Amino acid sequence: MRLRKFLKGVDPILLLTLLLIQLIGLIGVFSATYKGGISPLFVKQVLYMLFGWLVLFALSLRNFRSIYDLATVIYMLNLFFLVLVPLFGKTVYGAKRWLDLGPLSLQPSEFMKFSLLLFATYVLGHIKRSVSKESFILILAFAMPALLTLKQPDLGTAISYGIILMALLFFKGVRLRFFFIIGATFGVLSPLLWHFLKDYQKERILAVIDPYADYSGSGYQLIQSIIAVGSGGVSGKGFLRGTQAHLLFLPEKHTDFIFSVIAEEWGFLLSAFLVSLYFLFIYRLTLYGVRLYDGTQRLFLGGAVSLFLFQVFVNLMMTMGLMPVVGIPLPFVSFGGSSILTFSLMLGVCFSIVREYRLKDIHFEEKI
């Protein structure tokens, strides 16, 4: 009965596009983790995706307002887990970002993307004046997790919090001059901010300009990723035949650099198809956002689409050597349970909004 209710209101194009993205992701993770047989990491990825679909399915059947009303509780719970990370977190590659829960490791900073998006949508829905108690709460709500995340350190995730805030303010109708002022201020302060970056972060930024200046150090990942993407040609080297991945030249091949594995083994054709799927998915959600009647729903959908687009853009640019390595996963393609579940939560709410719209508007197919 619930499945019939889900299918009645679901957008088949969104559903099929998401399934195809995940299928390509599973092919990439299988190859990136293959060592003569099915890797336990691949099995975990399959389980993460199945659980993600259960989460997406459950949330899509709920009324948006029932989720919206829980925004404060969800945010405070996530903030509590984020505070626990520096106290009890697990350190991996010098970064303390994960809470070890036996067989599972959770990354609260990743889940905070969803919590912040929902909570900020809730707060903005109650702001009547620019200077108010709600405005202060909004700033504080972003500042606390951003500082905790920077401490881990995780600059990429902290930046994504800023993207969420800027996107929500834009869709709320804040004047463009505000964003120009923010951009100009950031430009003026950038020399000062440079001194607050850690040495490895500075090296990663400089590596984009000239990766060969430190071939075996900060430029190594970018160089190997560029080689992998470029060597794939039009149709690729073939499944499980990528030399950069299988000869262990490419670090983090199953996480942040999974697109490099796909591009090397399947070439331009599948890579372009994957990028097209992402933009079809984003375009389809954007069309709904434009036509929504409820301003709060439109705000959440706009924020979700902006974050989704940001992560896809940054990850693809990073793997092609056009942006610094910042640890931004490719949604539903990179290995990682926290990322998959975060976007499953986000899209579950988006699908709930879409379902409500489609069930209310009998002419949606003519408009969409």
Question: Would you list the SSEs in sequence order as H and E?
Answer: HHHHHEEEHHHHHHHHHHH
Beta strands, count: 3
Radius of gyration: 21 Å
Strand content: under 5%
Shape: globular
Number of helices: 16
End-to-end C-alpha gap = 27 Å
Lateral arrangement of strands in the main beta sheet: 1-2-3
Q: What average pLDDT do the residues reach? A: 88
Helical content (DSSP H or I, runs of 4+): over 70%
Oligomerization category of the chains in this entry: single chain
Instruction: Return residue spans where pLDDT drops below 50 for at least 5 consecutive residues.
Output: none
Computed structural class: mainly alpha
What is the makeup of the main sheet?
A: 3 strands, antiparallel
Number of domains: 1
Tell me about this structure.
The protein is mainly alpha-helical. The chain has one domain (2-367). It has 16 helices and three strands. It has helices spanning 2-9, 12-32, 40-60, 64-68, 71-88, 108-124, 133-151, 155-172, 176-194, 199-209, 220-231, 243-246, 258-291, 295-319, 337-360, 364-367; strands at residues 90-92, 95-101, 104-106. Strands 1-2-3 form a three-stranded antiparallel beta sheet, with helices on one face. A hairpin with a 2-residue loop joins strand 2 and strand 3 (104-106). The chain starts with a helix and ends with a helix. 40% of the residues are buried.
